[in-house]
Amino acid sequence: MSSQRSSVGSHNRKIRYRALLEDLSTLEEANDEQQVERTAGAVKEVQSLLAEGGVEERVKHPGEGYLDSRVLRATSDLALRCSEAVSGNVNTYDKHELATHIRENPEFWELVFPREVPVVSSLFGTFAPTPPEQRARKPRKRVEKQQTAALKAPKTVDKLEQTEEGSEMVSRVYRFISKACRNGPLSYFRLVLDPDSFARTVENIYYVSFLVRDGMVAIDVDEERGLPFIKPVPSSQREERNAAGENQFIVSIDMARWKELVTAFKIHSPMMVLKRD
Amino acid sequence: MSQKRQSKNNESLNNTDLKSAVKECVRYLFCREGSKIPIKRAEILKHLQSVCETPSNQVNNVIIEANNVLKAVYGYKLIQVDAKSGVQYIVVLNEECNSLHSTVTDPQQRRLLVAALTHIYMSGGPVKEDDMWKFLAEAGLLEENDYAGRKLLINTMTRQMYLQYTKVGDGELARNVFEWGQRAIEEVPKMYLLKKMADAFDKSPGHWCEQYKEATEDT
């Protein structure tokens, strides 16, 4: 409670200090007598402010001490100026009188100082002060710049919108498989083998391998027949299968094996007929 | 033997070198003086080094010698001024002299300078800037708000060392004041101004006793 009171008191005192400072800074305009009186008044008030606060409070609020010193400084400055003015006042100089005289007799005050070096000017003067001849600036040689070749830079791809050529084919194969497998799993070899072209067979195997890797289709070996069968994997099961790590299978095929398989499966026409680019 | 002669030769060579350096220095000071802007020792040094290849340890001797020449031939006197930026010189007359009015100096500017110097002297101390502007306006020399004209006092005349323009106090109480500069102290005997005052107001110089005391102390 008491500390609160003290801070309120300090605040009030600071306001009074500031008012004093403000007052002192405008004192310049007042005449000398007023200046002396008001400066004295300010010093008295500061003293009373200081007494009011007491030592303990001053320790608590150093800002007060700062303001106090500023007021003191301002008053001492003013006192100095007042005393200067007083010694000046003793003399009988009247600046208004002098100013009027100068205004009325300007020639009288056009003095040459006794120890001033007279300005030296040459009898024949300098060269006529004509400005130097303006020389036309040499026009700058224009250098025809060669058109810079278009900068070669890799295309910046913002989004991988363009699907790769291969992936387009893969999705076609997937669509075909899912259509063909509506009535159950299909024999893998029946699907991929193309009796007319070994190359297309290899291609089919290639596409299917992607689907298997991505978990879109599954190839399981049928227990009864001992042959691999293919079936699409519904999206709900894909996660599971992926988690199990079952997304690899290895197929090796060569020309001889292809022929063998084609005759063994008695394939006369390719099952997968795709639009190929 | 031959060595001795050689060194003697060198000495005499040095002497002719120094003589021409003195001449060059006189010429330089003579030409530079007209602007009334103090001449820096460093500038003299640079000039002599580039023109006469004067060794820097000789420059002081050259300047002293040049001062003698200026005194003997032209009646000039070099005054050394120690500034923050190094030693500078101003050139004044060795003796008081009733010179003719110069055709080169602008009479308006001269009146402004005389009025300012007289006002400072007669006020008996540094004159506050505002007081100076009021006085000059009253004397019909400078319009109340002629800031370009004020610059003449604050910059040009201060640079020429006729006036000194300094800030006193700080914070809200800071003021700029005018005082006499070094050149004014050298060129203008206070008694001269006081006699002009006496002429103007038909009084004896002793009428302004404070100023009279100062003027007599001055001489």
Broad CATH class of the domain at 165-264 in chain A: Mainly Alpha
Helix content of chain B: 55-70%
Overall pLDDT confidence of chain A: 77
Average the pLDDT over all residues of chain B and give the rounded result: 86
Which range does the strand content of chain B fall in? 5-15%
- How many helix segments of chain B? 9
Strand order of the largest sheet of chain B: 1-3-2
Portion of residues within helices of chain A: 40-55%
Please list the strands of the largest sheet of chain A in the order they lie side by side.
1-3-2
CATH topology of the largest domain in chain B: Arc Repressor Mutant, subunit A
State the domain count of chain B: 2
- Pattern of helices and strands of chain A: HHHHHEHHEEHH
Structural class computed from helices and strand pairing of chain B:
alpha+beta
The fraction of residues assigned to DSSP E strands of chain A is under 5%
